[in-house]
Amino acid sequence: MTDHEITPKADADASPGDGLSPVPGPDGFSDAEAAFISEMGSLMERWGLPQATGRLFGYLLLRNKPVDLDTMTRELGQAKSGLSVAARQLESWTLVRRTTRPGSRRIDYEAVGDLQHLLLVNNAHMRKFTETLSSGIPVARGEARDRLASLADLFSGFVEQTEALVADWEARRAAS
User: Fold this and answer.
1) Is residue 91 packed enough to be buried (19+ CB in 10 Å), middle (13-18) or exposed (0-12)?
2) Going by C-beta distance under 8 Å and a sequence separation of 6 or more, which residues neighbour residue 17?
3) Among 55, 67, 76, 52, which Cα is nearest to 4's?
4) Quick check: 155 and 133 in contact, CB under 8 A?
5) Which InterPro entries does this UniProt record tie to the protein (predicted)?
6) Among residues of the chain, what percentage have pLDDT more than 70?
7) Which of 19, 99, 121, 147 could lock onto 31 through a cystine, CB 3.0 to 4.6 A?
8) What tens digit of pLDDT does each residue of 141-159 get?
């Protein structure tokens, strides 16, 4: 990858084989980059998304500028059709945004990587989940009703706490 570098740990003992070196491996990624991309693939797969979607997100998080599907295909070694689907999935989660170059129909993608945005996107999903749980309370009876009410209350608290966390983080960030 040519538009970024991984900064090696400030350690005199760091060596090219320790995964901290910015020297690319045979696939064009350093060991650290490859490990990060792979871990994002595994993580997002546990969330129910295809591993290719997570790998693409990890790859885009490491990029310093938008990238097109042809470049993704070449650098990730995955099929263009699969990466196109993955990019659209990430876009639907608002984790990436698409851009176009002036005078070109080519579409570029870039990660939307600020923590605030990721938390607020997650909150939108949690809010919808909470609303759905709450809609089941009037139709449930007995223990099921109590369970739904308890879960709705838990997730409602999660959303409120996350919003407070983001507001606090924004205030600290603005003050610095």
Assistant:
1) middle
2) 31
3) 67
4) yes
5) HTH-GbsR_regulator, WH-like_DNA-bd_sf, WH_DNA-bd_sf
6) 83
7) 19
8) 999 999 999 999 999 999 9
Q: How much is the pTM?
A: 0.65
User: Which amino acid would we find at residue 60?
Assistant: L
Backbone angles phi, psi at 120, to 5 degrees: -70, -35
Beta strands across the sheet bearing 107-111: 67-68, 107-111, 96-100
Neighbouring CB atoms inside 10 A of 69's CB total 17
Q: Which pLDDT score is estimated for 119?
A: 82
**d(Cα 21, Cα 30) in Å, to the nearest integer?**
7
Calculate ∠ Cα 109-113-116, nearest 5°: 140
